[in-house]
Amino acid sequence: xxxxxxxxxxxxxxxxxxxxxxxxxxxxxxxxxxxxxxxxxxxxxxxxxxxxxxxxxxxxxxxxxxxxxxxxxxxxxxxxxxxxxxxxxxxxxxxxxxxxxxxxxxxxxxxxxxxxxxxxxxxxxxxxxxxxxxxxxxxxxxxxxxxxxxxxxxxxxxxxxxxxxxxxxxxxxxxxxxxxxxxxxxxxxxxxxxxxxxxxxxxxxxxxxxxxxxxxxxxxxxxxxxxxxxxxxxxxxxxxxxxxxxxxxxxxxxxxxxxxxxxxxxxxxxxxxxxxxxxxxxxxxxxxxxxxxxxxxxxxxxxxxxxxxxxxxxxxxxxxxxxxxxxxxxxxx
Length: 333
Prior knowledge:
six-stranded parallel sheet, globular, 11 helices, 15 strands
């Protein structure tokens, strides 16, 4: 049995990860800490585990094997570095950190201590992503020229269900793009097979918050390929959308239904749009993390994509700050 501690309940997905840990036959939650002691005590009571007001005290417990980190993003580095130094395996909400420099600080400690680190990047493992990768690997679309990925919701309008601290620029490092746009961002990077040459971003503030609630980023690739990443908190019925276009064909997913359509010479001669079956979903990130701990293996691809995600987000934020495209190779430690 892998014994886990919850480190903060700041993020809206903390409860989801706690449930995954409770439902997994190989894990058990045994302790909790939170930078907000009042919130932490309430959540620890719900889980029926002791609450530690002092993080170092919790990390010193020999009966804690790993931690689930859901703190404000700006304190990820100090919390994860401390956890790694204490020899605790780490599962964390995206993004890993707000800058590449901070990511490298975390990764250096993780490497030194030999613990397993996995990021929650759930859409990497969904059946539509696996099926799209199969189409791209077949070459049916030819050279990829344009990828468009969009994820948006209405959490800042209407009833405004997003918690107020999700608009805290210091804690979050941004708004719609870093919180929600991270998913279409890492998918765009995945479908193009790596990082772009440059990033150009534009942010909107529809509800007047300190962070953006409407965002677009354009990734420019060598040879003229482009990826358009869109995210927002102010679009109530916006569907999750993936488009991949190439010199030979095009692929659509989720516009608006969860169907995968392709049109290319390799699919009925390109005469019509063909619906493809979705692939079987891969194990979720939490399940993969547990397996890595059990087998002594490491989530190298997951961590690499997580590091690239921070690089892309840092470039997008810098692009907005200077109102110009930012070369990706200028974002360094």
